[in-house]
Design brief:
Elements lengths: L10 H14 L8 H14 L1 H8 L3 H7 L5 H4 L11 H4 L6 E7 L5 E7 L2 H13 L2
Antiparallel strand pairs: 1-2
Helix pairs in contact: 2-3
Length: 131
Amino acid sequence: MPRTKFSTTDLNQLRHQLDRWRQSQSGATRLPEALWTSAATLASTHGVGPVARTLRLDYNKLKRQVPQAPADSVSMAPPSFVELRPRDWLPQAAAVCRIELTDPAGAKMTVDLPCDHATVMGMAQAFWRRG
């Protein structure tokens, strides 16, 4: 019997391929290894549960097939800078904003200011330009 190339990118396409393969089999036949590989690839992005349900596969067996990421790849460095555009958060803020500023040397300043774009930006610029 010719080997079937199973989809590794589309869950519904893989489901249709698996259904056709199942219909062509008689009796209890093991699923091809290529199918498990394709299902595991999809499970790594779509989740084991949804893929196992859609393809009617054994959840635990599929979970064992999914490659596990090394523990080191999970840890990420904290961001060194986060930009918030004032128009995104100032209009919803209360009448007074608490602004906390830190410079590269470690100096910190905390100020309660009116929630006005010009005031907040002016205070931040003055803090970082001092020197």
